[in-house]
Design brief:
By secondary structure, the chain is mainly alpha-helical. Among the domains are: about 170 residues, Leucine-rich Repeat Variant; about 90 residues, no CATH class; about 130 residues, Alpha Horseshoe (Leucine-rich Repeat Variant); about 60 residues, no CATH class. Helices cover about 60% and strands about 5% of the residues. It contains 38 helices and five strands. The strands form two sheets. The chain has a three-stranded antiparallel beta sheet with strand order 3-2-5. Strands 1-4 form a two-stranded antiparallel sheet. Strand 2 and strand 3 form a beta hairpin. Helix 20 packs parallel to helix 22 and helix 36 runs parallel beside helix 38.
Length: about 700
């Protein structure tokens, strides 16, 4: 019987369910015992609103009933949420009910309601997906054996509910593993999906059930068989045995290693790949050799390169060199990045040779910038001396200064030489590097009549900050050239007061445009919240563009208006974009109004996104750093270049405007150098993405983290 079917039968009274009245009252009831008259009045009002045609009224009824914390109120809400009811058909009311009932998840009727919500269909970035994930979190956080059991059933059955259940159990690992990995009867084991789950949990208490599963399934794993079809006898036991071996390897258990060595000789390629994965995860002596062998096979090459990024080894250098020479696209970029992490002299020499290869030079230069070895620094020093590689090496040397505080010798001389070149791209690279190293002030570079220099210097203001950002804003306030305006606009992210020289009317105009500067203008406008711009900010907070909503929320974190926490809290409740919810939580964490506490507390427990939950927990403790504070400490570098689809379009790469979205949630307006290169520094740590302005043919350029 499926989870959904079992829950449906329980709702219809055809499956046994505990008497709700016999369940022990939650702790909330003791606190809610006083004021029974007001509670009855609140229940009466909630009853009136339940059948309202207005979704807002229905949500209010749910909130009133769940906030009372009384047994009869919870009972009434559960009955009102029966399948097919107006509340159950209203996604907003259903989400409010799941959030309101999570403290009572150990009660049988509530548990069934949450299990029903776990079965709801819909994409993750919809209210249906949020309902499903929140219901899973509510069940997991209860640490109730029956609730955990429902989640395990969902994990075994697969699909969206399984993914939600697994995420919830990883967020709230149960104190007892009995509902997940019971000891069972002799000869039985865990399902494959459960083996994978306990491996991710990293709980050593699961080692016993995992070993039993491996032992029980060994007879079903025949290395001599060419493959195993899902319909074949023993397929599930075979699948579980392999999953158990992988999970044990993740736990650091070496027991499956001898078995995996036998599987390496299997006829079934899937079993050979699993065996190699077990040996690699388990830290076997032959790990590097297996990865090298994987790189030689098209079937496993991508997986091997990905693992080599996580586990750098000098033994893999030459195999990575071969991949870098033979491949293109993302696999080429990953192999070059992995080469830079090996610390091997041969790898550094191979990277040096790639600097003369247009298809590999850009990625090789960044690998040298990020490499810990002295050989990499010396390679860049030599490249600075050659006119063919000077500009690229100077950019890489600047990146190395930011990433490792270990620039190559003669970098300043090379940058100064580029700064006086007749080539626009040379001057841009020189100006950016000199500004980042503090050799020339951004303010003085902005006084140049050279657009290449001005736009590159503006980008440096993000990492330099201080007077550099103010100088950019002063010029920005009167700038008429759209491309230069976008280049200068990045300075608005440098500090809280960077926008001081710009009028509020100008910020409002930019915020409602489609320019690349619009998100940061929206954020800066939020700092000046109040009549006559409050209504405009409300529209921006409800924009169809998640980037605008995100920046409106971030800006409101600095708003002087006392009702801001209420406005932000309302926006969080039904926001489907996790990055916007993260921004709302960051903004609420900066507020002082008591209204922020309830949403921060709820988000810290029940938001489907792990980053949002962590941000809310830090916000409650007053430890969440502000988005615009401490920007000077951010050293991450975006290393991007545009490549023409055909030779005749190469001249179109220069001065291309776009948006660089960094991990903090900020979207930065940026402009490429005349040769299509974009080196941006001072970014928050984490993944970033770059999108070209939509007025051009939309495309993506690779970003290096």
């Amino acid at each position: 019987m499926t989870l959904a079917a079992a829950v449906a039968l329980a709702w219809l009274g055809l499956a046994p369910a505990s008497d709700f009245a016999q369940q022990p009252p939650p702790a909330h009831e003791a606190r809610a015992a006083a004021g029974s008259l007001s509670a009855r009045l609140a229940m009466s009002e909630a009853e009136r609103l339940i059948g309202s045609p207005s979704s807002e009224d229905r949500v209010r009824s749910v909130v009133r009933l769940s906030s009372l914390g009384r047994r009869e109120a919870v009972d009434r809400l559960v009955r009102a949420m029966h399948p097919g009811s107006p509340l159950a058909r209203d996604p907003r009311a259903r989400l409010a009910a799941v959030r309101g009932l999570f403290p009572f998840a150990s009660l049988e009727p509530v548990r069934l309601l949450l299990a029903s919500a776990l079965s709801i269909e819909g994409p993750a970035d919809s209210l249906a997906g949020i309902i499903r994930d929140t219901a899973a979190l509510a069940l997991a956080s209860s640490d109730d054996a029956k609730a955990i059991g429902l989640l395990v059933v969902a994990v075994v059955q697969g699909g969206a509910a399984a993914e939600a259940a697994e995420r919830a159990l990883l967020a709230y690992p149960p104190r007892s593993l009995a509902p997940i990995a019971p000891a069972g009867r002799p000869g039985e084991g865990l399902p494959a999906a459960v083996c994978a789950l306990v491996g991710k949990l990293g709980d050593l208490r699961a080692a016993g059930p995992l070993r039993a599963t491996l032992a029980a399934g060994l007879g079903a794993v025949d290395p001599a068989a060419p493959s195993s079809a899902p319909s074949s006898p023993g397929y599930e036991r075979r699948k579980a045995a392999i999953a158990a071996a992988l999970a044990l390897a993740r736990l650091g258990d070496r027991e499956p290693l001898p078995v995996a060595r036998q599987w390496l000789r299997a006829r079934d390629p899937e079993l050979r790949i699993a065996a190699a994965e077990i040996l690699i995860q388990g830290g076997a002596e032959e790990r590097a050799g297996l990865l090298a062998e994987w790189m030689r096979s098209e079937e496993t090459r991508a997986r091997a390169v990905t693992l080599s990024l996580r586990m750098p080894s000098a033994d893999l250098a030459m195999d990575l060199v071969k991949v870098a020479r033979d491949e293109s696209g993302s696999l080429l970029r990953m192999s070059i990045a992995a080469l830079g992490r090996t610390g091997d002299g041969g790898a550094e020499r191979a990277l040096a040779g790639m600097l003369a290869d247009p298809a590999r030079a850009w990625d090789a230069a960044f690998a040298l910038a990020n490499s810990p070895s002295d050989e990499a620094k010396r390679t860049l020093q030599i490249a600075l001396l050659s006119p063919q590689t000077r500009r690229l090496a100077a950019r890489a040397g600047t990146a190395r200064y930011l990433l490792r505080d270990d620039p190559p010798r003669r970098l300043v001389d090379a940058l100064s030489s580029l700064r006086t070149s007749r080539d626009d791209a040379d001057r841009a690279a020189g100006a950016f590097g000199l500004a980042v190293l503090g050799e020339v002030s951004v303010r003085s570079l902005l006084g140049s009549g050279d657009a290449a220099v001005v736009r590159a210097a503006a980008r440096a203001s993000l990492v330099v900050g201080g007077d550099a950002a103010i100088a950019c804003a002063e010029r920005l306030s009167g700038e008429t050239d759209e491309t230069t305006r976008d280049a200068l606009g990045v300075a608005l992210a440098a500090s809280v007061d960077a926008a001081d020289p710009i009028s509020t009317g100008k910020l409002a105009e930019w915020a409602e445009s489609d320019a690349a500067i619009a998100p940061l203008a929206t954020l800066s406008l939020g700092l000046r919240d109040g009549p006559p711009y409050t209504e405009r900010l409300e529209r921006l907070l409800g924009s169809a563009d998640p980037a605008i909503r995100r920046h409106a929320a971030l800006g409101l974190g600095y708003s002087p208006e006392p009702d801001t926490s209420s406005r932000l809290s309302k926006a969080w409740h039904f926001e489907t974009d996790r990055s916007v919810r993260r921004a709302i939580i960051a903004a609420l964490s900066k507020r002082s109004e008591p209204q922020r506490i309830e949403v921060l507390g709820l988000a810290s427990r029940m938001d489907p996104d792990a980053d949002v939950r962590e941000a809310a927990r830090l916000g409650l403790q007053g430890r969440l750093p502000g988005i615009l504070e401490g920007r000077g400490r951010c050293k991450q570098v975006a290393w991007i270049t545009l490549s023409p689809s055909e030779a005749k379009s190469a001249p179109m790469l220069g001065y291309r405007r776009g948006r660089l979205a960094e991990a903090s949630g900020l979207v930065l307006p940026v402009v490429t150098d005349p040769d299509g290169a974009l080196v941006a520094a001072g970014l928050a740590p984490g993944p970033a993405s770059f999108t070209l302005a939509m007025r051009f043919a939309p495309e993506q350029a690779p970003a290096h983290e």
